[in-house]
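To make this tangible, we now present a fold written out as tokens:
***
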Amino acid sequence: MIESAMRREKCDLVIRGAKVMNVFTGTCEEADIAVRAGKIVAIGQGYEAEHVYEAHGLFALPGFIDAHIHVESSTLSPEEFAAFSCAHGTSVIVADPHELVNVCGIAGAEYLHEAFSRLSCGGVQPLEVCMQLPSCVPATPFEQSGAVIDGRETAAEIVRPIFYGLGEMMNFPGVVAGEADTLTKIEAAHRAGKIVDGHAPSLGGDALNAYAAAGIATDHECVDAADCREKLARGIYIQLRNGSSAPNIEENCKAVDAYNYRRFLLCSDDRNAYDLSAVGEMDDALRRMVACGIPAAQAVACATLNTAECYQMTGKGALAPSYDADVVLAEDLVSFRVKAVFKRGVLVAENGRALFEHGGRYLPEAVRSTVRIAPLKEEDFRIALRGGRARVMTLLPGGIITGEEIVEVPSQGGDVVLGEDLLKLAVVERHFATGNMGKCLVKGYGLKNGAIGITVAHDSHNMVILGDNNRDMLRVAELLRQAGGGMALCTDGEEDVFPLDIAGLMSSASAEEVIARTRAITERARAMGVRKGVEPFMTLVFLSLAVIPKLRLTDRGLVDVDAFRIVSIDAE
């Protein structure tokens, strides 16, 4: 490398004539990037190389780093996800396989690691994965997940090389209360010298001090700029989220300034297949950040250097001698349209397409045939009230928070009679065929004459079914069982199902088929009368998420998240 830097020997590659973004100084200079053995050896002019890539007029940026993502939320296989991610300039992801592990246990994380590891382009892994060990399996005591990973198992697993750190610590009440098993997990990560990611919406005051004192490094759940500033002041890195479901980047960008921008990171958290394909990943986050008025150099640092420093990724996050030759060539610093992507000096994507092939899916038995439900009948979907008043979950516009309303509901023959805008919601345990089924009423969704369901349901991923009659709800459950998981609907005798055959969360189909089929079944669901502004299937995904207020439904019953307890559907 020294010989090449001193021009005494040829380089392997020169990326010639780009406007090179320097994330240390916030400036750009027109220069060549000289590469040898996968590393940058020099930034300058006139280097000779075996291979030259002409980049005149393009901006050279460090490879983007997604600071926190659940790959499973794309519904794509790791192979298809990697192709999109690389094509849009991402070179490293910090992946938390929380969904897979809640279904399949540690085998789910091992599957994700192996699937990405098998990808190759010119001898390099095109998308590097820093995988976190999920910290909350299950996320709450109110649901049946496919696995339980306690403090003892966490301590045994976190030392393995496949785990880069401990995934988002959603159990912030347990941290603040000093719950023994929760602290065992955190302490194990610290002993192993590994980072602990956070998840603490609106946590402040003494509780925030306690959370930060536990050595938790990041948070992607800030609700507004004031929340960001308070956590920044306590030494926590803020992850600006550009997710498909609940982005907070525009609101939280208001907290970014010229002094504190080095403590902000960019992340996706959840990104669906269509968004990955159509608008991208970190490139989309960058254009949105710049559109909020953040200087381009600061925004790029949030997607590169800041994340590399936070996660102690040696050789990542900058274009400078000794750093990995992970380079993104973009048209400009507004659209961030990616023209070419290099990983350790190998061209892995160009003009919006990945240049590697996966040669078939890696699909071990551990992530297949994961939908196991007890036998069901129509009567199982009846809701019998003791009186005439019910506690109803209400859908609120513009987010994933739900409300609570007490509603007069008549009954007939041991079952509720659904009035205007009321629907039944059922969560069916699907890991061990226990027969658990939680049931409640929902207002604000709008569906008529049928039922829809999905086996993606944060965080334990049981089967969620919504409908206005027991017959169609039963049929949807059977369609999902037969498919091994997926998305299904039944209306007026017509049926549709799209299988998610990888743990009931992801599809082994091509990205094109996933996007086309999920779009088609979503449009069919919309035609069933789903209210404008409600995303038919993705809304269901969050209705069992028992860490977000106010009411949620799990296989064990209706949960009042604020009170952190199971409550009756009967309203006194």
In short: The two ends are 76 Å apart (CA to CA). The chain has a mean pLDDT of 96. The chain has two domains: 60-349, 368-567.
